[in-house]
Design goal:
The structure holds two protein chains of two kinds. Chain A has eight helices and no strands. Chain A is mainly α. Chain B is built from four helices and no strands. Classes of the chains: A mainly alpha, B mainly alpha.
Amino acid sequence: MPVLEDQSVRLQRFAEGDLHAFEELFRQHQAEVYRWVVRIVRDPAAAEDLTIETFWRIYRAHARFRPDGSFGAWARRIATNAALDHLKIVRPQVALCEDLPAPAMGNPGIQHDTRQKIAEAFSRLPPKLRVAAMLALVEEEPYQEIAEALGITVGAVKLRVFRALRHLRKTLKGMGIEP
Amino acid sequence: MTSGDEKLQEMLKHAIGPAGTELQRDLWPNMLARLQEKSTAVPWFDWVLAAVALLALLIYPHTIPVLLYHL
């Protein structure tokens, strides 16, 4: 099991503050962290910055990392917090998906307008609800995984998704859309 | 979820669409720059400490030779 041993030694060295071990972990996990963050913020440039911010937080917190734990899960949790902090400051530009086929028959202009309004209503959700709804409803990530990333229970995730849906429905109703 | 919730979820998926991008480049050079930038930055409390030390020397200049002797 040399690979597992290598990883275990690497994690131990990282916890002791070894920069070389940190570099190895960075290269190993950067794509995974980026993929997770871009799903939340929907902005590739911001996701790159947040990936670096995540690893900066990881590096600063190296002494708190338990080498017997999962580095990936820990990184994902820190990345989620970094993305949440970002969403609290910047209102996201939720891009419309132009490549997907229109969901129903009818005037394409009206459909585009409806989709734009839905995206707009979604961007108005409070960040905590938006993250839960984005991961659960749009990305269809398992509730357990979302709960671990947010550091809350599965029940709390379900509650956030429920509140997000209620919020969205109310906003869309105000825009003249009845889902 | 109710059927209304499922319909809203479908509408959301169509409106927002997939995130869809993979990391296009290695971010390590940027990370290294961030680490170096932070490691060369002087924390604010160090500046406060330096200011206090300077102020003390200005108020009690006679301590300067003593300090130099001990250095």
